[in-house]
Amino acid sequence: MLESYAKVATLLLVAFLFGGMFLFSAGFAALLFKYLPPKDARMLIRNAFPPFYLFVIFSSGVASLLSSQTDLFSAGCMAFVMMTAVAARQLLMPAINRATDTGFRKRFAWLHGFSVVLTLIHIVVAGIVLVHIAS
How many CA atoms lie within 13 A of 27 on its CB side? Predict the structure, then answer.
C-alpha cells in the first residue's frame, strides 16, 4: 500500500515538474519579452532563473527519492535531472551571466543555446517518466 502512495506521489510531483518547466520555458519567458522592454525582460529572466533551478532541483530530487525503492528507471531519470540542474544553476547560469556582462556575444549565444537544450532535455525526461509511471 505504501508503494502505491509513493507511486502516486511521484506521478504528481513529476507532473508538477513537467508542467512547471514547460510553462516557465514556453510561457513565462516568451510573455516577458512580448510585454516588457528588452532590458527589463532580461533582468527579470536573470532573477527568475535561480528559483526556477531550485524548483527543478527540489522536485526532481524528491521524485527520485520517492521512486528509488520501487522504480529505478524513474529514480535514475529524476536523479539525472536533479544533478544536471545543479550543474546548470551553479556553473552554467553564472557563465551565461558573465558572458552577458562582459559583452561576449558568441559565448553567450553558445551557453544560452546549451541551457535551452538542457531544459528541453529535462522536459522530455520528465515526460518519459510520466508515461513510464502511468503505464
Answer: 6
d(CA 1, CA 23): 33
Burial environment of residue 131 by CB neighbours within 10 A (0 to 12, 13 to 18, 19 or more): exposed
Q: What's the domain count of the chain?
A: 1
Q: What CA–CA distance (Å, rounded) separates 78 from 74?
A: 6
Domain that holds residue 118: 2-134
Cell of 51: 528559483
Q: Give the orientation angle of helix 38-67 with respect to helix 72-87, to 10 degrees.
A: 150
Rounded to 10 degrees, the C-alpha dihedral 61/51/17/93 comes to -80
pTM for the model stands at 0.93
For residue 32 the three cell numbers come to 516577458
Per residue in 20-79, pLDDT (tens digit) is 999 999 899 889 989 999 999 999 999 999 999 999 999 999 999 999 988 999 999 999
Reduced to 3 states (helix: H, G, I; strand: E, B; else coil), residue 135 is: coil
